[in-house]
């Protein structure tokens, strides 16, 4: 009887825990990092871990949690409901690649996220990323005409916050086009 040999190749990254490089024990790796971070806390459930990963822009952890986690609430919280919204967290903290992954996985947010992002475009250095997020939200969500009008009015009134009037113009055009599209 001849013995069969299997050649396997594993790519370990220098300086990394071999288990985390392979994705084994990832929940423990995430839990340890959460416990060490300022507002991390305990990995009590996958939703909490996803919120934490979205807060700190831990894209690799977001990928793992989305693939292996359970019990996600993908809709925005209702008025008075005390829970977070991972998509809103990723939007406000300006992580466009995480926002895209969450939207592609069916997560939705309320118009509050959009209303908090629009004014930020005017005074942050990474305005291109916020602009991408605004565009993604408008493409993927169904906001009511009333709420879009309110955000549009706020954007026009806050024009003093925009250093570059072209940024304000882009936002106003996008919001106006979206309003026109949903009004039909």
Description:
It is a single chain. With 184 residues, this protein is mainly α. Helix content is 59%, strand content 0%. It has ten helices and no strands. It has helices spanning 18-22, 26-36, 46-56, 59-68, 86-92, 96-104, 111-120, 127-140, 145-157, 165-183. Helix 7 packs antiparallel against helix 8 and helix 8 (127-140) runs parallel beside helix 10 (165-183). The chain is elongated. The chain starts with 17 loop residues before the first helix and ends with a helix.
Using brief descriptors, characterize the structure shown:
184 residues; mainly alpha
Brief characterization of the structure:
The protein is an all-alpha fold and 184 residues long. The chain is 59% helix and 0% strand. The model has no long low-confidence stretch (mean pLDDT 83).
List the helices and strands and how they pair.
Layout: H1 18-22, H2 26-36, H3 46-56, H4 59-68, H5 86-92, H6 96-104, H7 111-120, H8 127-140, H9 145-157, H10 165-183
Helix pairs in contact: 3-4, 3-5, 4-6, 5-6, 5-7, 6-8, 7-8, 7-9, 8-10, 9-10
């Amino acid at each position: 009887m001849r013995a069969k040999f299997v050649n396997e190749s594993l790519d370990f990254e220098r300086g990394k825990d071999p288990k985390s490089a392979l994705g084994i024990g990832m929940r423990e790796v995430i839990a340890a990092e959460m416990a060490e971070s300022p507002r991390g806390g305990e990995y009590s459930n996958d939703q909490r871990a996803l919120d934490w990963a979205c807060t700190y822009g831990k894209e690799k952890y977001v990928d793992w949690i989305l693939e292996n986690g359970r019990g996600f609430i993908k809709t925005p919280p209702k008025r008075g409901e005390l829970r977070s919204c991972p998509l809103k967290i990723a939007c406000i903290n300006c992580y466009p690649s995480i926002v895209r992954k969450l939207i592609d996985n069916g997560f939705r947010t309320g118009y509050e996220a959009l209303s908090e992002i629009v004014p930020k475009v005017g005074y942050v250095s990474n305005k291109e990323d916020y602009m991408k997020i605004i565009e993604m939200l408008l493409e993927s969500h169904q906001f009511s005409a009333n709420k879009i009008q309110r955000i549009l009015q706020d954007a026009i009134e806050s024009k003093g916050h925009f250093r570059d009037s072209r940024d304000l113009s882009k936002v106003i055009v996008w919001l106006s086009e979206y309003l026109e599209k949903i009004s039909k």
